[in-house]
Amino acid sequence: MSAAGVNVRASVHVTARAYTYLANEISRVFYEAIHAGGLDPSDYANNQETIEAGLRSWLTLRQLETAYLEIYDPGTGRMVTRIDLTIAYDETTEETYHTAIEDVRAAIGQAGEFPGCRYRVVVSTIPGAVPVKGWGPTDLQSVDHLKPHPVGTVIKTAAASSGMSIWH
Amino acid sequence: MLVKYRTSQSSHTFELPDSGDLAVLCAQAEERIKRDHPELAQRGFLTERVANGLLNSLAVNATEVDLGDLAAASARPRT
């Protein structure tokens, strides 16, 4: 341990753990939706490292605004549901890690199943966010024909939290 | 805190000023690396590597940050 290392503020470690937890739990919520919708999780698993590297990088820099899971009909391209996880950067002194997974499951269950559908992960970031390998620019698909259903705060940490809405 | 990284066969360290802000730490580390090794900035995704290295090290209470070999191609596949 270096002499300077002793002076590292505990809050930096708490924040780092909070962002790591948040990135992992965003993946967990998306996996829950993929499983509940009867979809093949292998696409997500194959890209999980890239997805989470992006989430971790943009959280670290406080550039991540919302992570979306779009589920769509591959034949028409029409959205059948979308899950929005919107980040709020709100530091507190208490180190906490909580995911309201039962609320997530209940909300996802109400959206139904989506046999034969495909999915993708999209994020919105602040302007000028850093590039991350494997990610590129895109646009969200229209959800004008769907209605948003707010679920409330579903992931809570000492450094940031995530609210959830599901469109169906 | 001490930041360590490698460029091919060479190892490098520098001291990062204390801060409670991860984004500030990331910017300071990247700026220092770019100053000492401007060629690394041309390889792309340097910020991503620094941010992930900082997060991974600090999340486990490490007082030293190891960013790994910044000259190596990432093993992470493109999608």
Structure described in brief:
With 168 residues, chain A is an alpha+beta fold. Chain A contains three helices and six strands.
How would you describe this protein?
The complex is a heterodimer of chains A (168) and B (79). Chain A is of the alpha+beta class. Helix content of chain A is 34%, strand content 28%. Chain A has three helices and six strands. Chain A has helices at residues 10-36, 42-60, 101-111, and strands spanning 64-72, 79-88, 97-99, 118-125, 148-157, 161-167. Chain A has a six-stranded antiparallel β-sheet with strand order 3-5-6-2-1-4. In chain A, β1 (64-72) and β2 (79-88) form a beta hairpin. In chain A, α1 (10-36) runs antiparallel to α2 and α1 (10-36) packs parallel to α3. The longest helix of chain A is centred in the N-terminal third of the chain and has 27 residues, at 10-36. Residues 1-9 of chain A have low confidence and may be disordered. Chain B is α+β, with helices and mostly antiparallel strands. Chain B has helices at residues 22-36, 38-41, 46-59, and strands at residues 2-7, 10-15, 64-69. Chain B has a three-stranded mixed β-sheet with strand order 2-1-3. In chain B, β1 (2-7) and β2 form a beta hairpin. The longest helix of chain B has 15 residues, at 22-36. Chain B is globular. The A-B interface holds A 1-2, 4-9, 11-13, 15-17, 19-20, 46-47, 49-50, 53-54, 56-57, 59-62, 130-135 and B 1-2, 15, 18-23, 25-26, 44-45, 47-48, 51-52, 54-59, 61, 63-64, 74, 76-79.
Give the beta-strand count of chain A: 6
Q: What is the 3D shape of chain A? A: globular
Going by helix content, strand content and strand pairing, the class of chain A is alpha+beta
The major pleated sheet of chain A works out as: 6 strands, antiparallel
DSSP summary: helix tally of chain B: 3
Oligomer: heterodimer
Q: Approximately what portion of the residues of chain A adopt beta-strand conformation?
A: 25-35%
Q: Could you tell me the radius of gyration of chain B in angstroms?
A: 12 Å
